[in-house]
From TrEMBL:
<feature type="domain" description="F-box associated beta-propeller type 3">
    <location>
        <begin position="102"/>
        <end position="298"/>
    </location>
</feature>
<protein>
    <recommendedName>
        <fullName>F-box domain-containing protein</fullName>
    </recommendedName>
</protein>
<dbReference type="InterPro" id="IPR013187">
    <property type="entry name" value="F-box-assoc_dom_typ3"/>
</dbReference>
<dbReference type="InterPro" id="IPR017451">
    <property type="entry name" value="F-box-assoc_interact_dom"/>
</dbReference>
<feature type="domain" description="F-box">
    <location>
        <begin position="14"/>
        <end position="55"/>
    </location>
</feature>
<dbReference type="InterPro" id="IPR050796">
    <property type="entry name" value="SCF_F-box_component"/>
</dbReference>
<dbReference type="Pfam" id="PF08268">
    <property type="entry name" value="FBA_3"/>
</dbReference>
<dbReference type="InterPro" id="IPR036047">
    <property type="entry name" value="F-box-like_dom_sf"/>
</dbReference>
<dbReference type="Pfam" id="PF12937">
    <property type="entry name" value="F-box-like"/>
</dbReference>
<dbReference type="InterPro" id="IPR001810">
    <property type="entry name" value="F-box_dom"/>
</dbReference>
Length: 384
């Protein structure tokens, strides 16, 4: 009966024009479903393997909000890469997209690729790894995460190469042949990271960047409340104005991409319960506007859910232009709407969950640099 139903559905799809099947149906499927469709017929295998199709498929994927686990419980391991999908049903909104055998820290995300730092006892030190959860490809980058910090990842449009922006801090144990400042490393290259300068920012701390207009943006609290901008085409730095806050307030602030422009969410640590969300209204004029003030349901959460305290990690998320918050508190993740209403809760284990604003769109686009990297594997260990 099930086989008959599937055969009927396939027959009906084949009755449709090929262009509609390809560019209106197949291109919208999630990666796992699309891979299964390749087994239906050779024509589907051919069209869904073409690079043009895979690029369009990647563009259609939802922008998932990434977290990763610490500890174990509720089906979540400390080696899980987790995603929150606001368009999914409640049961699978927070789900694991990949599980690794090794402990890791998430470092960067770009076009379906992830950079992680693995904590492994097989090799000395901590190593940077590139992986794609959708294709289950995994490759060491050949550079040790010693005193180099990844501050961003980007596609260099003139060459099509994927590159890492690295920082060597003035607080690091600097080797004789290295200089304080920033470096660029091309994935798949056998060359050492290339120095591009800006040593005066060697002491700045960089959070997860927001990518807008071919540039990476960071809100750097240690640099007089400035936005640092890195143009990924010219590979040069500049500065922008940030919103102005009252003097004397201690705030926690993070930048994010908001429908093609920049957003900044911030909390006054004296009150803790109010999240201000600023949006850059005019990019060239650097004009910011306060668009939301969301009061967190702290009293409700602490009264209803065991183990919650006042240590909240808040990320702003967007879905079809609608703003909502993802708050991680101890073992819990809370989905909060723009009115401060608690929409849903997720209990995940005896440890904690970290997010830090990483967003990710799954991709099946092949990349030649994986095969160029020594130790590259696919669909096997360390993926579980």
């Amino acid at each position: 009966m099930a086989q008959s139903a599937r055969a009927g559905a396939t027959h009906r799809l084949r009755a449709l024009p090929e262009e509609i099947v390809t560019w209106e149906i197949l291109v919208r499927l999630p990666p796992k479903a699309l891979l299964r469709c390749r087994a239906v017929c050779r024509a589907w295998l051919r069209v869904t393997s073409a690079r043009e199709f895979l690029m369009a498929h990647h563009d259609r994927q939802p922008s998932l909000h990434f977290l990763y686990g610490s500890g174990y419980g509720g089906g979540i391991h400390e080696k899980d890469i987790l995603a929150f999908d606001n368009q999914a049903t409640n049961a699978v909104q927070l789900h694991s997209v990949a599980r690794l055998k090794e402990y890791f820290y998430l470092q960067a995300s770009c076009d379906g690729l992830l950079i992680i730092a693995t904590l492994t006892y097989r090799l000395p030190g901590t190593w940077f790894i590139c992986c794609n959860p959708a294709t289950r490809q995994y490759a060491p980058l050949g550079i040790v995460a010693r005193d180099l910090y990844i501050v961003g990842m980007y596609r260099h449009r003139p060459t099509g190469e994927y590159r890492l922006l690295l920082q060597w801090s003035r607080y690091s144990d600097l080797p004789d042949d290295q200089r304080i400042g920033f470096y660029v490393f091309t994935l798949g290259s056998d060359r050492q990271p290339r120095y591009i300068g800006w040593p005066e920012m060697g002491s700045a701390y960089f959070n997860v960047p927001a990518r807008v207009r071919d540039s990476l943006h960071w809100y750097v609290t240690s640099q007089s409340k400035l936005i640092v901008v890195f143009n990924t085409i010219t590979e040069s730095f500049q500065r922008m104005r940030a919103p102005t806050f009252p003097i004397g307030q201690r705030r926690i602030s993070y930048i994010f991409e908001a429908d093609g422009t920049l957003g900044l969410h911030t909390r006054n640590m004296a009150t803790k319960e109010i999240v201000d969300i600023w949006v850059l209204q005019n990019y060239e004029g650097e004009a910011w506007v306060l668009k939301y003030q969301i009061i967190l349901p702290v009293a409700e959460v602490m009264g209803r859910f065991e183990g919650c305290d006042e240590l909240w990690y808040v990320n702003v998320a967007l879905d079809d232009g609608r703003v909502f918050l993802l708050a991680t508190v101890a073992e819990w993740v809370f989905h909060i709407d723009s009115d401060g209403k608690l929409v849903d809760s997720f209990h995940r284990g005896v440890g904690s969950l970290c997010g830090y604003g990483f967003r990710h769109k799954q991709s099946l686009v092949p990349h030649s640099f994986f095969t160029a990297l020594e130790g590259s594997v696919a669909n096997t260990s360390p993926f579980i």
